[in-house]
């Protein structure tokens, strides 16, 4: 069956001397796999549209297994991402995370928009770390492991100040601090931003500037929470950490 959809390439795998297997997150069909025959050849008509991060329109033959790409046209190449090591690293983490946390053939147009806007903002020189924080927070909801951020996870008290408990899965108010001796202290800014990131429409992102202390708090929480609940090993995350040390 011949199908057409818009999608973003989130993974490429070389196959044989001249072919590529593409994993594409599409607006219409969710995550799908397709063979791009001859895409590794420089003069192939599929070469330019088979690059990682490319947002394009794809015409492909669908089957029970791997589809076959027939035609493709790039809509946005996200060229700036591929030309910058740091942008590439953040974008690679984004697409690897969405690959690991989604099943094939499960449409989710809102998730497609989230992926597109995340790559767009990375490409357009927004603060890559902040954009990634928002994406990571929203992907926790996609994975079904979102923390409780609307108040205290234990007593549901809505007034802060709060600390964050990885073990309890969300904010703890002062009256409930006794539940977790390893709770993570938070500034008021971090409390507000974590809640905002979970519910915020990324399309509406404007200029945003965070203090380094706030970034470090949010990063610590997200890293520990993913480690505790996601069960994922993300290669690109390790590379990002190495870049941070540089």
From TrEMBL:
GO biological process: DNA recombination; double-strand break repair
Phylogenetic classification of the source organism: Bacteria, Bacillati, Bacillota, Bacilli, Bacillales
Organism name: Pueribacillus theae
DNA replication/recombination mediator RecO N-terminal domain span: 1-78
Family the UniProt entry places it in: Belongs to the RecO family.
Entries under PANTHER family matching the protein: DNA REPAIR PROTEIN RECO
Matches recorded under SUPFAM superfamilies: ArfGap/RecO-like zinc finger (SSF57863), Nucleic acid-binding proteins (SSF50249)
Reported function: Involved in DNA repair and RecF pathway recombination.
Record flagged with keyword DNA damage: yes
InterPro entries: ARFGAP/RecO (IPR037278), DNA_rep/recomb_RecO_N (IPR022572), NA-bd_OB-fold (IPR012340), RecO (IPR003717), RecO_C (IPR042242)
Record-given protein name: DNA repair protein RecO
CC annotations in GO: bacterial nucleoid
Keywords, in A-Z order: DNA damage, DNA recombination, DNA repair
């Amino acid at each position: 069956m011949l199908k057409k959809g818009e999608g973003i390439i989130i993974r490429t795998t070389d196959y044989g001397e001249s072919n590529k297997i593409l994993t594409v997150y599409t607006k219409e069909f969710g995550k799908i796999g397709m063979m791009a025959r001859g895409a590794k050849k420089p003069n192939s008509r599929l070469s330019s549209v088979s690059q990682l991060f490319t947002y394009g329109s794809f015409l492909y033959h669908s089957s029970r297994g791997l589809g076959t790409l027939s035609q493709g046209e790039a809509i946005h190449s996200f060229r700036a991402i591929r030309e910058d090591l740091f942008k590439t690293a953040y974008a690679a983490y984004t697409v690897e995370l969405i690959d690991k946390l989604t099943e094939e053939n499960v449409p989710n147009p809102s998730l497609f928009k989230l992926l597109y806007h995340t790559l767009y903002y990375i490409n357009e020189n927004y603060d890559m770390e902040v954009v990634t924080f928002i994406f990571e927070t929203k992907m926790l909801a996609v994975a079904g492991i979102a923390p409780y951020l609307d108040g205290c996870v234990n007593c549901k008290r809505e007034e802060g100040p709060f600390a964050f408990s990885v073990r309890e899965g969300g904010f703890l108010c002062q009256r409930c601090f006794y539940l977790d001796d390893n709770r993570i202290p938070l500034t008021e800014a971090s409390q507000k931003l974590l809640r905002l990131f979970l519910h915020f429409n990324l399309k509406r992102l404007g200029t945003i500037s965070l203090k380094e202390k706030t970034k470090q708090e949010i990063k610590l929480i997200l890293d520990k929470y993913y480690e505790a609940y996601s069960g994922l090993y993300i290669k690109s995350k390790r590379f990002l950490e190495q870049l941070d040390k540089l």
